[in-house]
Design brief:
By secondary structure, the chain is an alpha+beta fold. The protein is built from 7 helices and 10 strands. It holds the Pfam family GntR.
Length: 237
């Protein structure tokens, strides 16, 4: 016989899949579910944790358990694709907002990300990405001016990679990436729609040209309910 929390989980899944609650709806509170299923809050909490793990709900502090779209956007971890290429491929209703476009002096602390020398300035680009009207990604990019001598707001709103490859005729080679989960910063809360969310998924990348030159460092900060990050792996004997 199934444990009670699994029986409750299965019943909640059935209700969600049969549209008992629509995407964005709040589930009843733990107290209400405890009364409905005649069990303890601890048992209900186990059921809700399993719903969260399997992508049916997002627990939002101060609100409760919100039903989410299980069809999260799949963003590849391996490979190098621009955001515009991904949104076109996934057919997303997306918009890019440019918040910062500036040159940083070589001695600026952020220059360490690109390991530049004392003569090379850095482009700093900060953008938010809206999907269906919600600001869900904060991209913070740094480009070595030696390789990217000019940027404009128009280029940053469309595709910097398209400009690099088709206007500057540079060949982007490979990237080293790190993925971590972090507590949102003050900047995250100011620029993203994070009400109730207590973490963000951060991908930091060092991107190299074909000749191995390091030309870009990027920090991409994602709201956790909208994305899953996928990779392809092959066992090598």
């Amino acid at each position: 016989m199934l444990k009670k929390y699994l029986m409750i989980y299965n019943d909640l899944v059935r209700k969600i899949e049969e549209n008992g609650w629509a995407i964005g709806d709040l589930l009843p509170s733990e107290n209400e579910l405890s009364a409905e299923y005649e069990t303890s809050r601890e048992t209900i909490r186990k059921s809700l944790d399993l719903l969260s793990q399997n992508g049916y709900i997002q627990k939002i502090q101060g609100k409760g358990s919100v039903v989410i779209d299980r069809n999260k956007f799949s963003f590849p971890v391996s490979g190098i694709q621009s955001y515009s290429e991904l949104t076109e491929k996934l057919k997303l209703n997306s918009r890019t907002n440019v918040h910062t476009l500036e040159r940083l002096k070589p001695e600026d602390q952020t220059a360490k990300f690109l390991k530049t020398d004392s003569t090379e300035s850095i482009w700093n680009v900060i953008r938010t990405r809206e999907i269906d009207g919600e600001r869900v990604i904060l991209d913070k990019d740094y480009f070595n001016e030696k390789y990217v001598p000019m940027l404009s707001k128009e280029i940053c709103q469309t595709s910097i990679y398209d400009y690099i490859e088709n206007k500057l005729n540079l060949v982007i080679g490979f990237a080293k990436k790190e993925i971590v989960v972090e507590t949102p910063t003050k900047e995250d809360y100011e620029l993203l729609d994070l009400e109730g969310f207590t973490n963000v998924v951060v991908i930091r990348s060092q991107v190299h040209l074909e000749d191995t030159s390091l030309f870009q460092f990027t920090e991409s900060r994602h709201r956790p309910d909208k994305f899953r990050f996928v990779d392809f792996a092959r066992r090598v004997n």
